[in-house]
Amino acid sequence: MSETLAKPLTAKDLVTDQDIRWCPGCGDYSILKQVQSVIPELGLKREEIVFISGIGCSSRFPYYMETFGMHSIHGRATAVASGLKAARPELSVWIVTGDGDAMSIGGNHLIHLLRRNFDVNILLFNNQIYGLTKGQYSPTSEEGKVTKSTPMGSIDHPFNPVALCLGADSTFFARTMDRDPKHLRDTLKRANAHKGTSMVEIYQNCNVFNDGAFFIYTDKETKPEETLFVEQGKPLVFGEGNKKGIKLDGFKPVIVDLSNNGTSVNDLWIHDENDRNKANLLSRFYDNPKKEQHFPRPFGVFYVEDRFVYEEAMEAQIKDAVVKMGEGDLDALIKGRNTWTVE
């Protein structure tokens, strides 16, 4: 695509002529719309943007973005994107993947992308099911999940994407959802602003094979008690009228009632995006019937770290090698420094 627009992009400029092949009512539509509304605000030219996907319903995304893109192979979008970013570091690279694509066959590639810290954005569509292959349980499906491949209920312990990514030394992790467009847009902007690998987990509803998996976090009746929106420098409050909060008893999170005169907002845990230990605690606010208290599910930016990015370190190493050793000799490099004589 050699065309360069004289005027800034609009959301309509990013709409392709392809028929969208997602089921009516799929959460992917909402994510697509928010991405198309955010990208023009980044001030980029169309030819500076690339969307790369693996395999799955979400991985049709590049067809619906009027930018450069690649629909790659199962679990390897992260590897393809790494190669592209290494060769063309000036590009804005976005990886679109699903819980099956990223957490199963692509798990190894994902953790190494996170630790290397290429300056790319990952959008992980998590619907806790294999949608494209018609409803088998996925690596994030809850224990006991009844599907076509687990008719008696899944006995697998599910992956916790936050804990997994933090364990791989991710420098940016955030969680949002398809049914909260404003929060989704704000999260996408934060992710793009981060220099390094930004991982955004998006709770996405599969209305055919796992309908309502996350409605507890969006429905008016349950949302106040079940969701916790974390913001930098602000106390952790939730519940109807923010009358509940979370404080730390040493290293142990505790839910408190703020309507009780004995506890005030000043006693609460203050969110710090740069504190990995607190991010690890937040990552464990997950369904577990054995826990003493049922914690709300956190949404927002969990953790941010300023760390060198891989492509810049690689470029600097190449320049340093040229200064020290000249342009180099490919034949000599292949031959190596050591030889052996076999008698």
Offer a few descriptive terms.
11 strands, 343 residues, alpha/beta, 3-stranded antiparallel beta sheet, single chain, 10 helices
Describe the protein's architecture and organization.
By secondary structure, the chain is of the alpha/beta class. Helices cover 27% and strands 17% of the residues. It is built from ten helices and eleven strands. The chain has helices spanning 28-38, 77-87, 99-105, 107-116, 161-167, 181-193, 223-226, 276-283, 310-325, 330-335; strands at 49-53, 68-71, 92-98, 121-126, 172-177, 198-203, 227-229, 237-238, 244-249, 252-257, 297-304. Strands 2-1-3-4-6-5-11-7 form an eight-stranded mixed sheet, with helices on both faces. Strands 8-9-10 form a three-stranded antiparallel sheet. It is globular, with a radius of gyration of 22 Å.
At a glance:
Helix content is 27%, strand content 17%.
Outline, from the CA principal axes?
Answer: globular
Beta-strand content estimate: 15-25%
Helical residue percent band: 25-40%
Major beta sheet summary: 8 strands, mixed
Query: Residue-averaged pLDDT, rounded?
Result: 94
Number of strands: 11
Stretches with pLDDT under 50, minimum 5 residues: none
Number of helices: 10
Order of helices and strands: HEEHEHHEHEHEHEEEEHEHH
Distance between the termini: 58 Å
Compute the gyration radius: what is it?
A: 22 Å
Helix/strand layout:
Layout: H1 28-38, E1 49-53, E2 68-71, H2 77-87, E3 92-98, H3 99-105, H4 107-116, E4 121-126, H5 161-167, E5 172-177, H6 181-193, E6 198-203, H7 223-226, E7 227-229, E8 237-238, E9 244-249, E10 252-257, H8 276-283, E11 297-304, H9 310-325, H10 330-335
Helix pairs in contact: 1-6, 3-4, 5-8
